[in-house]
From TrEMBL:
Keyword Hydrolase belongs to the record: no
Gene3D superfamilies, A to Z: Glutaredoxin
Protein name from the UniProt record: Glutathione peroxidase
Organism: Vanessa tameamea
Alphabetized InterPro entries for the sequence: Glutathione_peroxidase, GPX_AS, GPX_CS, Thioredoxin-like_sf
Pfam families the record matches: GSHPx
Amino acid sequence: MTNCLFKCTSESTGRSWNYNNKFLINNMTIGFRTISRLVVPAFGNLFCLARVQLSTINMAENNPDYKNATSIHEFTVKNIKGEEIKLDVYKGHVCIIVNVASQCGLTANNYKQLNELYDQYAESKGLRILAFPCNQFAGQEPGNSEEIVCFASDRKVKFDLFEKIDVNGDSAHPLWKFLKNKQGGTLGSFIKWNFTKFIVDKNGTPVERHGPNTDPLDLVKSLEKYW
């Protein structure tokens, strides 16, 4: 269950901010405001790039080669609080793994129906939903972890929310490289847009892939095959 783990302010709920830039700017003195507008964003971008590169190295070290893996249970990810989670905690559960965004035209319907699926099947069938924020599609998930949690909390999200990641390219999380390797898509295995959904069986094997335009509730017939 996702709770609002951070203090929500009008800035975090009403505007999109780069957390690192905001932090630095707010701690600059008034006399440096003009300089900060020029220097701080550039410094922040370099810092973020270095952090992404380091994060990519850490992901590779903590996870198997996706080409040789056989189950999601072999992988480790970070939840929205930054805590490492070994996915073997999902053994025995049918899972939906989905890349989410808060500013997409598909957001409202997908969040609503994912909540409905969870409410209906989490307790009775052991369904688990793993949502991974991603900003690779038209920049529609620009917020930091604080903002993402507050967005999810406003929508009473109960399913599991993880740290923002990339799903395509060299920087893609190994878990998502594994998912794409096991369940390729139309016109290539790369993720096409927000809310691509993978169904994973109780053994951790990706068994189906559904595109962004497939509503979560339309997955029920597929899920029934794997309970």
